[in-house]
Amino acid sequence: MKKTAIILGASGLTGNLLLHLLLEDQRYEKIISFGRKSLNFTHQKLKEVICDLFDLESQKEKFKADEVYCCIGTTAKKTPDKDTYKDIDLGIPWDASVLCKENHIDTFLVISALGANSNSSIFYNKTKGDMEKLVLKQQLKHTFILRPSLILGKRKESRFLENIGMTIFPLFHFLMQGKWKKYRAIKAISIAKAMIYLANSSENSGIINSDKIQELSTKT
Predict the structure, then answer these.
(1) Does 180 reside within a domain?
(2) Cα–Cα distance for residue pair 178/17, rounded to 1 Å
(3) Mean pLDDT by 10 residues, the chain (220 residues)
């Protein structure tokens, strides 16, 4: 029986690549994108739900699928207000995981970040760490938290520091061995492929670091 998947954040770099992979995957019959704006893209498998992502609970009746992929994320430049930043990077994934619990959706995948730590003094790392704890608290049967390093790919908006990182990081990949391997930059398409692999695998739930994400991406 073919499956239905929900994506949050399908307009972003990784989320958009994930969307197109799922649309071409014969295991899926419907992909539902939840977002505040239309993707301005049509496909026979694609259904869009335009809504306020800060109020996902109001969309409970439409939030039904076999799997949920959460690719939501912002930056300090785009969202300088810390409360709003937390509402996006922590609040939306948490609310989505709660809806999964309420609607008996067993598989939830979310993109976090390398360095996520609820005890961190760094706002970004702490926010991601707090998000992870709240998501895991739902105790969904198949929960995968992906912690990528610097994400490589062509974005709609320019990110100065990431542009520098995309130039420098690959030059040092050969030096990043052993425990340092997880710090290698990773392509967004690799993250998307790994997410689909995990959703359709017998892998145990857990936190997946960047080097493991890269490894899993080759198994699709």
Answers:
(1) no
(2) 29
(3) 96 97 98 96 97 97 98 91 96 98 98 96 97 97 96 68 53 54 84 98 94 92
Q: How many residues does the chain have?
A: 220
- Is residue 154 a part of any domain in this protein? no
**CATH number of the domain to which 89 belongs:** 3.40.50.720
CA–CA gap between residue 188 and residue 17 (Å, rounded): 8
The answer to pTM > 0.85 is yes
Please check whether residue 170 lies inside any domain of the structure: no
Amino acid identity of residue 79, one-letter, is T
Structural domain contains residue 93: yes
Burial class (CB in 10 A: 0-12, 13-18, 19+), 157: exposed
Closest CA to 147 of 206, 79, 220: 206
Cβ(117)–Cβ(129) below 8 Å: yes
Domain that holds residue 11: 3-149+187-217
- Tell me how many domains the chain contains: 1
